Amino acid sequence: MPSLIDLVLEGRNIQQHHPWPRVVVDAQIWQFAASELAYGRWTLVGLWGEPSTVHMAIMDGDATAVVSLDCPDRVYPCVAKHHPPALRLERAINDLFGLSAQGLPDARPWLDHNRWGVRSPLGNRIDAPATTSPYRFLPTEGDGLHQIAVGPVHAGIIEPGHFRFTASGETVVRLEQRLGYTHKGIEGLMRGAGIERAAQLAGRVSGDSTVAYAYAFSKAAEAALQLQVPDRAVWLRALLAELERLANHLGDIGAICNDASFGLMQAHCNVLREDILRAANTAFGHRLMRDVIVPGGLVRDLDEEGKASIAAVLDNLHVRFPALIELYDNTASLQDRTVDTGIVTTALAKQYGAGGYVGRASGRTFDARRAPGYPPYGDLRFEVPVLDDGDVNARVWIRIREVEQSLSLVRQIMERLPGGPSNVPIAAVAGAREGMALVEGFRGDILVWLRLDGGRVDRCHLRDPSWFQWPLLEAAIENNIVADFPLCNKSFNCSYSGQDL
Amino acid sequence: MRKLLFQNFFRGPLTERAPALDEAAVEELATALQRAARRRLGRSLSIREIDAGSCNGCELEIHALSNAYYDVERFGIRFVASPRHADVLLVTGPVTKNMSDALERTYRATPDPKWVIALGDCARDGGCFAGSYAVVGGVSQIVPVDLHIPGCPPPPVTILQGLLSLLDRTAKNVAST
Ligand code: SF4
To answer: Pick from A38, A52, A83, B56: most CB atoms within 10 A?
Structure first.
């Protein structure tokens, strides 16, 4: 069986792409790659377009590569036909670039709701007056089925999206999601943007992951420019990333319990979350630590006051968090709601390459901090918790364990933080340079791929972990009762803005 | 669970004192409210939040208002599930074209008298997303806006100042009629 490495040798290597190889292949090799994905030997980590090219990022064990196919005729062999996780990505490529996958099983638009006034805005733009055209939801047949339509404006304070449930009595027989409501055209705004503005845009793809996105974007830009950032910046970035993970996991644990009507847990978790945001504000000047990580390093160094505030939060968390774990573990009425609810099978998690707690609660050991891995994590001690149950309960426990790991990571980083400068100036380099990065955000692995040309962004693609998690929520809710949907949804906590872009 | 509840009983509340009103916000609000006479409401204010394409950063800080530190319910501020129950629409995001219909319909579903607050830098004019083919560029392009709260995202205290000044003004109007 040829490995990904063999396949890379078959294509035309693009020299200026870092740190992993990118090769231009022909349609035959492209299809071969699709079939390897379908057999489950490789994992799809990204699929994106350019005006007349499609790119596919693939992982095979520890090896990572991008294969690219030129498609001057604006068609290319469909991947989703063989490998369903590619479906929404291919629909989005069609919407944005007007490149069509031959034999795409579902040709409905995904991000394009017919409201932009333009078709294929990033490819050959065609003016198309905005109209209201109904979306054809998939048909459901059977006796006594009824539909429930929810959204885009939801009852709670959450992002907009539409859920179409088909239920038989109380039981959900199908959930179909319709997303794209928050599509802001970020990849369009990226085109031609200077690096500084592009980094700001990246940090606004999904607000809860602003650190992780800025981190991934900066790493990709630095890879393209072959720029080494100072040690102190490397370590500080990890500190920010772990603080972001802590804050979000605490918020999620509380919110999931609240959706099972256990508000006490949320009250306590949100206090701990707020403590972290305040310490972040003291240390880095922004509660969500936005615009702190930039290509070249960080715009702000950590001073003694910042260090002290983070240390105080850590001490408090060490005292308070164990009591909350015990509370979760000992409340039978809560577990009654979370155990066996919304199960994602290990097979599905593997097929979709689901990252983050969704993947790790369903047996997938992947964590981008480990493999492919990036500094300083190789020098830090941490475990990657994995469970097989795949239910809401497992997704809560993965978060609990990750809170513990992040606490330990923050401590280790604070103790061993190297001195020296926290950034280097970036110099524009002439000619096209390409870079890619995979960074583990709290929700899962974020992929950023970009091409710089003379200090400006020529093309930048940002792939949220939610692309490979949203479809699993459709599967997880099947045969559960409608009333358990908020609980399941919260346990996934997928990003709308991140996938809509 | 009993142990935890017991401990908290003796720990004292975490809730902080209400922040002082912000001058700029008060001024912006005062002009807005002159135009909109308000008599029907008492101190209780019901808010319907609408994400019109935000990055979700603003939502995180709105959520924070309900934690024990800020505890907005004590000001008679409630977040409601339906626009039919709302006095105020709190709108975030640059207003994506894909959300503009939903925003307008939610506005129409809200009974009079009603106020619209645009929250966050991108709700004012599209912020860093302005100029995209996919955004309208600010809440006021679709529905009339009474108050803008700046920030990316505005921290909870800033949101609270905006909301409180709205309430404060409202109460005075009621008292003077
Ligand atoms: S103002 Fe900032 S935080 Fe709020 S939605 Fe816009 S980009 Fe996100």
So the answer is: B56
